[in-house]
Amino acid sequence: MDASDLATDILALARAQGRTLTTAESCTGGLIAAALTRISGASEAFHEGYVTYSNAAKTRLLGVPEAVLAEHGAVSLPVAHAMAEGALTSAGADLALSVTGIAGPSGGSVEKPVGMVCFGLAFRLPDGEVRSQANVHVFENLGRDYIREQSVMYALHWALEHLKAEA
Protein backbone atom coordinates (compact mmCIF):
# COMPACT_ATOMS: atom_id res chain seq x y z
CA MET A 1 0.00 0.00 0.00
CA ASP A 2 1.18 3.50 -0.74
CA ALA A 3 0.30 6.66 1.20
CA SER A 4 -2.71 7.35 -1.02
CA ASP A 5 -4.15 3.87 -0.41
CA LEU A 6 -3.59 4.19 3.33
CA ALA A 7 -5.16 7.65 3.44
CA THR A 8 -8.17 6.44 1.45
CA ASP A 9 -8.73 3.55 3.86
CA ILE A 10 -8.22 5.75 6.94
CA LEU A 11 -10.74 8.30 5.73
CA ALA A 12 -13.28 5.64 4.75
CA LEU A 13 -13.06 4.02 8.19
CA ALA A 14 -13.18 7.36 10.00
CA ARG A 15 -16.28 8.39 8.04
CA ALA A 16 -17.95 5.02 8.66
CA GLN A 17 -17.23 5.37 12.40
CA GLY A 18 -18.29 9.02 12.50
CA ARG A 19 -14.83 10.05 13.70
CA THR A 20 -12.73 13.09 12.92
CA LEU A 21 -8.95 13.23 12.56
CA THR A 22 -6.23 15.78 13.16
CA THR A 23 -2.45 15.82 12.86
CA ALA A 24 0.41 17.48 14.72
CA GLU A 25 3.60 17.34 12.70
CA SER A 26 7.14 18.51 13.21
CA CYS A 27 9.74 16.75 11.03
CA THR A 28 7.18 15.79 8.37
CA GLY A 29 6.11 19.42 7.97
CA GLY A 30 2.51 18.67 7.00
CA LEU A 31 3.11 15.64 4.78
CA ILE A 32 0.65 13.48 6.76
CA ALA A 33 -2.06 16.12 6.41
CA ALA A 34 -1.16 16.43 2.72
CA ALA A 35 -1.56 12.68 2.21
CA LEU A 36 -5.00 12.79 3.82
CA THR A 37 -6.21 15.90 2.01
CA ARG A 38 -5.04 14.55 -1.33
CA ILE A 39 -8.13 12.29 -1.13
CA SER A 40 -11.41 13.73 -2.40
CA GLY A 41 -13.93 14.09 0.40
CA ALA A 42 -11.26 14.22 3.11
CA SER A 43 -12.99 17.18 4.75
CA GLU A 44 -15.74 14.84 5.99
CA ALA A 45 -13.26 13.37 8.49
CA PHE A 46 -10.17 15.61 8.47
CA HIS A 47 -10.81 19.16 9.63
CA GLU A 48 -7.39 20.57 10.52
CA GLY A 49 -3.74 19.84 11.11
CA TYR A 50 -0.87 21.56 12.88
CA VAL A 51 2.70 22.00 11.71
CA THR A 52 4.66 22.78 14.86
CA TYR A 53 8.28 22.76 13.78
CA SER A 54 9.62 24.91 16.61
CA ASN A 55 9.38 24.22 20.33
CA ALA A 56 7.58 27.54 20.74
CA ALA A 57 4.90 26.42 18.26
CA LYS A 58 4.52 23.09 20.07
CA THR A 59 3.85 25.01 23.27
CA ARG A 60 1.69 27.79 21.79
CA LEU A 61 -0.52 25.70 19.48
CA LEU A 62 -0.59 22.32 21.20
CA GLY A 63 0.05 23.15 24.83
CA VAL A 64 3.20 21.03 25.09
CA PRO A 65 4.66 22.07 28.45
CA GLU A 66 7.98 23.90 28.21
CA ALA A 67 9.22 21.77 31.12
CA VAL A 68 8.61 18.56 29.12
CA LEU A 69 10.50 20.00 26.15
CA ALA A 70 13.36 21.11 28.40
CA GLU A 71 13.60 17.78 30.22
CA HIS A 72 13.14 15.37 27.33
CA GLY A 73 13.84 17.36 24.17
CA ALA A 74 11.52 17.83 21.21
CA VAL A 75 12.27 14.35 19.87
CA SER A 76 10.94 12.21 22.70
CA LEU A 77 8.02 9.99 23.61
CA PRO A 78 6.65 12.47 26.20
CA VAL A 79 6.57 15.22 23.58
CA ALA A 80 4.92 12.93 21.00
CA HIS A 81 2.24 12.12 23.63
CA ALA A 82 1.72 15.78 24.46
CA MET A 83 1.56 16.81 20.80
CA ALA A 84 -1.11 14.21 20.01
CA GLU A 85 -3.16 15.05 23.09
CA GLY A 86 -2.84 18.78 22.42
CA ALA A 87 -3.94 18.42 18.80
CA LEU A 88 -6.87 16.24 19.84
CA THR A 89 -8.03 18.86 22.33
CA SER A 90 -7.37 21.90 20.12
CA ALA A 91 -9.15 20.40 17.12
CA GLY A 92 -11.94 18.75 19.08
CA ALA A 93 -11.15 15.63 17.05
CA ASP A 94 -11.62 11.95 17.87
CA LEU A 95 -8.17 10.80 16.73
CA ALA A 96 -4.86 12.66 16.52
CA LEU A 97 -1.53 11.61 15.07
CA SER A 98 1.71 13.33 16.00
CA VAL A 99 5.25 13.02 14.72
CA THR A 100 8.50 14.59 15.90
CA GLY A 101 11.91 13.43 14.80
CA ILE A 102 15.32 14.03 13.34
CA ALA A 103 15.21 13.85 9.55
CA GLY A 104 18.79 15.03 9.12
CA PRO A 105 21.25 15.39 7.73
CA SER A 106 22.23 17.32 10.85
CA GLY A 107 20.81 17.37 14.36
CA GLY A 108 21.53 13.79 15.36
CA SER A 109 23.48 12.56 18.37
CA VAL A 110 24.50 9.23 19.85
CA GLU A 111 21.35 9.18 22.00
CA LYS A 112 19.08 10.54 19.26
CA PRO A 113 20.48 9.65 15.84
CA VAL A 114 19.34 10.97 12.50
CA GLY A 115 16.35 8.83 11.58
CA MET A 116 14.90 8.68 15.11
CA VAL A 117 11.22 9.59 14.97
CA CYS A 118 8.68 9.57 17.80
CA PHE A 119 5.01 9.07 17.01
CA GLY A 120 1.96 9.78 19.12
CA LEU A 121 -1.64 8.69 18.75
CA ALA A 122 -4.36 10.15 20.95
CA PHE A 123 -8.00 9.18 20.78
CA ARG A 124 -11.25 9.93 22.47
CA LEU A 125 -13.29 7.07 23.92
CA PRO A 126 -17.10 7.08 23.57
CA ASP A 127 -17.39 8.45 27.13
CA GLY A 128 -15.07 11.35 26.22
CA GLU A 129 -12.00 10.04 28.05
CA VAL A 130 -8.75 10.70 26.20
CA ARG A 131 -6.12 7.99 25.83
CA SER A 132 -2.78 8.21 24.10
CA GLN A 133 0.11 6.04 23.05
CA ALA A 134 3.55 6.84 21.75
CA ASN A 135 6.32 4.88 20.16
CA VAL A 136 9.66 5.44 18.54
CA HIS A 137 11.18 4.13 15.35
CA VAL A 138 14.68 4.66 14.01
CA PHE A 139 14.68 4.72 10.22
CA GLU A 140 17.79 3.98 8.22
CA ASN A 141 19.61 7.20 7.40
CA LEU A 142 19.03 7.20 3.66
CA GLY A 143 18.46 10.93 3.51
CA ARG A 144 16.04 13.52 4.76
CA ASP A 145 13.32 12.86 2.18
CA TYR A 146 13.45 9.11 2.82
CA ILE A 147 13.07 9.55 6.59
CA ARG A 148 10.17 11.96 6.15
CA GLU A 149 8.39 9.71 3.64
CA GLN A 150 8.85 6.64 5.82
CA SER A 151 7.55 8.59 8.81
CA VAL A 152 4.36 9.41 6.90
CA MET A 153 3.89 5.75 5.98
CA TYR A 154 4.51 4.62 9.56
CA ALA A 155 2.01 7.13 10.97
CA LEU A 156 -0.66 6.27 8.41
CA HIS A 157 -0.22 2.53 9.00
CA TRP A 158 -0.57 3.08 12.75
CA ALA A 159 -3.73 5.19 12.34
CA LEU A 160 -5.26 2.60 10.03
CA GLU A 161 -4.53 -0.25 12.44
CA HIS A 162 -6.06 1.74 15.30
CA LEU A 163 -9.23 2.48 13.32
CA LYS A 164 -9.52 -1.16 12.24
CA ALA A 165 -9.24 -2.27 15.87
CA GLU A 166 -12.01 0.17 16.81
CA ALA A 167 -14.34 -1.04 14.04
TrEMBL record:
<dbReference type="Pfam" id="PF02464">
    <property type="entry name" value="CinA"/>
</dbReference>
<feature type="domain" description="CinA C-terminal">
    <location>
        <begin position="5"/>
        <end position="161"/>
    </location>
</feature>
<protein>
    <submittedName>
        <fullName>Protein YdeJ</fullName>
    </submittedName>
</protein>
<dbReference type="InterPro" id="IPR008136">
    <property type="entry name" value="CinA_C"/>
</dbReference>
<dbReference type="InterPro" id="IPR036653">
    <property type="entry name" value="CinA-like_C"/>
</dbReference>
